Structure formats: C-alpha cells, structure tokens
Amino acid sequence: MKIRKKGSWEQWRKISQVHKREVYFIHIIVIAGVFIAAVILEYL
User: Does the pTM exceed 0.70?
Assistant: First the structure.
C-alpha cells in the first residue's frame, strides 16, 4: 500500500469539496424545479 503524497491529498480534498458543492447545487435546482412545477399545476 502506497502512502499518498500530501500534495495529491490536498488536491483530492479540493476536488471532492467542489464536487460536493456541485451536487448540493443540482439538488437545490431539482427541488426548486419540482416546487415550481407543483405551484404551476395548482394554479392551472
């Protein structure tokens, strides 16, 4: 088992944080879209 270099570990952490942020953003968009669709259907 190889020990990771600190540089690559830091890089990986940054990438994973960015990925998490993107996932949260997508979830918010999906939830907002569903909510807006429900409101539109209510008022049709």
Answer: no
